[in-house]
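FAQ: What does the model actually see?

It sees only this:
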Amino acid sequence: VQLQASGGGFVQAGGSLRLSCAASGLNFGSYIMGWYRQAPGKERELVAVISTGGSAYYGDSVKGRFTISRANARNTVYLQMNSLKPEDTAVYYCAADLMYGRKWDRAEIDYWGQGTQVTVSS
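And it is asked to produce this:
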């Protein structure tokens, strides 16, 4: 299984970025997909999760600003990030698991992609 994240970069506060994560080696439509982030010196934080049916969950810090979506025909999950803040600066990771539930809170996920850096300047 490979999860290839892309789309990170440098943006000013208030700007937008869209992250993509292309998956291979798995039956994409059967997997719960999500995004985590980790800032220097901080624990990994759950940002958003999307179910196989398209239901989404968001962390409190990104609600109303970020949108997770998936394109099953393209084996890809997206994270649209709007109204970015300096505190959104982190390495963002995509993740995949067959199961939903508390394991996502504990970051006990089966598959991880490599991170993509997002830097938001003030």
